[in-house]
TrEMBL record:
A family per Pfam: MMPL
Residue ranges crossing the lipid bilayer per the database entry: 248-267, 274-295, 301-322, 351-370, 376-398, 637-656, 663-683, 689-708, 720-740, 746-769
InterPro entries, per the entry: MMPL_dom (IPR004869), Mycobact_MmpL (IPR050545), SSD (IPR000731)
Name assigned to this protein: SSD domain-containing protein
Residue ranges constituting the SSD domain according to the UniProt record: 248-401
Bilayer topology annotation: Multi-pass membrane protein
Length: 781
């Protein structure tokens, strides 16, 4: 043991250095992360799929959508303009719009290419050489006072084919535009739709708060008769942040209060409580600083998991003070330093072995593909290591105050230690345990759906669903990635896949889809459209008089037809229409191939989409949710195999260290604990996930400490019993509270650990704790 003052100085220097490093990291960009997706594993995918997912996430991750609903169209438009003006005055949002491109802007761009563009209905009529329906439609528009026809348009497009094609860009949706505001008729009136992109990540707490403040300010000036629907990652992230903060406060607060009450009840002194709080606080600070330094960020879920550190780190203080209590029962304290140092020398070997087992369990977590679990592993492991260092370096100086020489808690532990070995489980109870394990394990099922990791509040989900209906399905996480070796081949494949997707929309199996083929037809389609329109220009002499137009414009129209330009994809991608709407982001290319994203919204039958992707060459259904879920299932199985291998290796080590009889009893505890926990989860109707499996590894790493301390108790049975019981209570308190978390992953983690620690304690008392001699409790340590 180092000199008391020297050890404390070294401990204090380490604490200051590590804390300063963490503070420096925070001031230079380290941040709190709230995105649940940041916990998820990386999936092995080719470069184009990764690029496509990044494009989709970049386009929609930080964007919010608002629907302002009013009885009258003018009121909705006025409200939308007010909100847009207010949002533009803040720095929290950019790229704020309602209708990204007016019809006038689109018409100006597409008009030179009008003789290469036709709707599906127009193509069918011209293929059948039926001009009469087209002439009749043009006449109706011509005499409609609200129609788009005018003399300039008629002189360049006598059958008014172009306005119908321009309207088809909306994908058949009943949208309207007024003064740059996108409107949708509802059953009760009109809804004005607004979109805005957050200037920072919705999962950054500072940017998140700025966006919410700016949004609330913009909406606060609206009339009371206007209802607002919201959608976007911002609202889910804000709810997750609020939930995590509440859980950190509740779980950490109750755990800390429980620890304080335990310390006061056992030791009836404020000094052990003060030392314990110092140990916990310093360990938590170090864990936070180390994690920030290693990852440059700290996930809120890591902090929630990290609150369990309270229940584990306090165990070391319990073992130290319980050892001192038993020593105080049997000897006079002649030297304060000698008392603390002698207790540390007695417990440090076993405590070091317990630390090693816990750290190994956390290291196992670090080898998982989940960044969030790696953070949890580093956070808790570094915190426990510093707790151990605190005992070794700081306790010789800080923890030397005299304790009460008589303790009710220790006396109770002495009686319990003498009573328990005489009441072992009968053979009947052992068989009942076997039946419980078998029956519960048979009932156990698995569910690796990543969507159950976090559930947003019902009001947020309901508003998003209503807004998605207004937007005809919005955009789902799944999309189609279409590939080809050339630009024209890609456009052709996009057109091919659009036909079955359109049928799915008509069959109400799909809400909507967005494909670039709607905005830029392939070269082959443009040539066919141009040839079909040739029928019109061959009969201008008959068509123009029916529309009341002067036949003298026929020559100019024919020349325009003969010299009409072709629409190129590269030209379209550079337009403001493509850039502002985000449609340009749907086009991808690398050195070897081209690709395009087809966005899907309102998917009701994903299997039908998958069937389409299998029918055509070069089409892939990208479903990140399903990919991650499959990855989670894969690693759940690997984790269970890792646990089985760990239990086997541990059994061999225990037999080598403690002999065959005692070693097998120690090994039997984590093995039976694992089986009993799985059986209990099965009886409880739980669906096994990766987080249950990860928790079982920690059950082994934490719970095996109880067996090790009992195996090394020797003549200190009473103090070890008290320390183990106090440790188990504090750990159960910490992990039991995790089990009531609103986040499914945390709840599964906490519930499994609670069951596992409870079973470990009961089995360790049953199999490992030996019966002490009657006079052993009276001997000096």
């Amino acid at each position: 043991m180092p000199n008391a003052r020297l050890g404390f100085s070294l401990w204090l220097a380490l604490l200051i250095l590590i804390s300063a490093t963490g503070l420096w990291q925070w001031q230079h960009g380290a941040r709190i992360e709230t995105d649940i997706l940041a916990m998820l594993p990386n999936i092995n995918q080719d470069s184009l799929v990764k690029q496509a997912q990044a494009r989709v996430e970049q386009q929609f991750a930080n964007r919010i959508y608002l629907a302002l609903q009013a009885d009258q169209q003018a009121v909705a438009v006025s409200a939308a303009k007010l909100v847009i003006d207010q949002l533009k005055q803040s720095d929290a949002f950019d790229d704020i719009y309602s209708a990204p491109n007016s019809l006038q802007t689109l018409a100006s761009f597409y008009f030179p290419y009008r003789m290469q563009l036709l709707t599906t209905e127009q193509r069918q009529l011209l293929q059948r050489q039926q001009l009469a329906p087209l002439i009749e439609n043009a006449q109706q528009q011509l005499y409609n006072p609200f129609g788009s026809a005018n003399s300039a348009l008629l002189a360049n497009d006598p059958l008014l084919l172009f306005p119908d094609w321009l309207q088809s860009l909306a994908g058949g949706q009943d949208y309207q535009q007024q003064d740059g505001i996108l409107l949708r008729a509802t059953g009760q009136g009109y809804a004005a739709v607004i979109s805005a992109k957050g200037a920072g990540s919705a999962f950054n707490p500072q940017a998140q708060q700025q966006q919410l403040t700016a949004l609330n300010l913009a909406l606060s000036g609206l009339p009371k008769d206007i209802s607002v629907l919201t959608a976007g990652a911002l609202f889910h992230a804000a709810a997750a942040t609020q939930s995590a903060k509440q859980e950190i406060s509740v779980i950490g607060g109750i755990s800390l209060l429980g620890v304080m009450l335990l310390v006061l009840w056992c030791f009836r002194s404020l000094m052990p409580l003060a030392i314990a709080l110092l140990t916990l606080t310093s360990s938590f600070i170090v864990a936070t600083a180390v994690t920030l330094t290693a990852f440059q960020q700290l996930h809120l879920l890591t902090l929630v998991f990290g609150t369990s550190l309270v229940g584990i780190a306090i165990d070391y203080s319990f073992h130290f003070y319980c050892d001192r209590l038993q020593r105080a029962e049997h000897q006079q304290q002649t030297s304060r330093d000698e008392s603390a140092v002698s207790s540390l020398r007695h417990i440090m070997p076993t405590l070091s072995l317990a630390l090693l087992s816990s750290v190994i369990a956390y290291i196992a977590l670090a080898f998982t593909p989940f960044p969030g679990m790696r953070q949890v592993a580093l956070f808790c492991a570094s915190g426990l290591v510093f707790t151990w260092l605190t005992l070794w370096l700081a306790y010789p100086l800080l923890a030397n105050s005299r304790l009460l020489q008589r303790s009710r808690a220790l006396r109770w532990a002495q009686r319990f230690s003498a009573y328990l070995p005489q009441h072992r489980l009968s053979t009947t109870w052992c068989w009942l345990l076997v039946i419980l394990i078998a029956a519960g394990s048979w009932r156990l099922s698995s569910n690796d759906d990543v969507r159950q990791l976090q559930q947003s509040p019902a009001d947020i989900t309901q508003q998003e669903q209503q807004l998605r209906q207004l937007l005809s399905g919005g955009t789902d996480n799944q999309f189609l990635l279409v590939r080809a070796d050339s630009k024209q081949e890609l456009l052709t494949r996009l057109e091919q896949v659009s036909d079955p997707l359109t049928k799915l929309v008509q069959q109400q199996q799909l809400g909507s889809f967005v494909s670039l083929s709607r905005f830029v037809p392939s070269e082959q389609t443009q040539q066919q459209n141009h040839q079909l329109q040739g029928l019109l220009y061959q009969h201008l002499a008959q068509v123009l008089p029916q529309l009341g137009l002067d036949g003298s414009i026929a020559t100019a129209l024919t020349q325009q037809y003969q010299h009409s330009p072709r629409l190129e994809i590269d030209t379209w991608l550079q337009t403001s229409a493509a850039q502002q709407s985000g449609l340009a982001q749907l086009w991808l290319a690398n050195q070897h191939e081209y690709a395009a994203i087809v966005l899907l919204g309102g998917i009701h039958q994903l299997s039908a989409i998958a069937h389409i992707s299998q029918q055509f060459t070069g089409i892939t259904l990208v479903d990140k949710v399903a990919d991650i879920s499959r990855t989670m299932a894969h690693f759940r199985l690997l984790t269970m195999l890792l646990l089985a291998a760990t239990l086997m290796i541990a059994a061999l080590l225990f037999v080598w260290r403690y002999g065959k009889s005692q070693g097998l009893r120690i090994a039997l505890v984590p093995i039976l604990t694992t089986l009993l926990t799985l059986g209990s989860l099965g009886w409880g109707g739980a669906e096994l996930t990766l987080f249950h499996a990860l928790a079982l590894i920690l059950v082994f790493g934490i719970g095996v400490d109880y067996s090790l301390f009992f195996a090394n108790a020797g003549q200190q049975t009473a103090s070890v019993m008290l320390a183990v019981l106090l440790s188990a209570i504090s750990t159960l308190l910490a992990f039991g509270l995790l089990g009531i978390s609103q986040t499914h992953a945390i709840a599964a983690f906490g519930q499994t650990l609670t069951l596992g620690i409870l079973f470990t304690l009961l089995l360790a008392l049953q199999f490992v704790l030996s019966k002490p001699d009657a006079d052993t409790l009276q001997e000096s340590p």
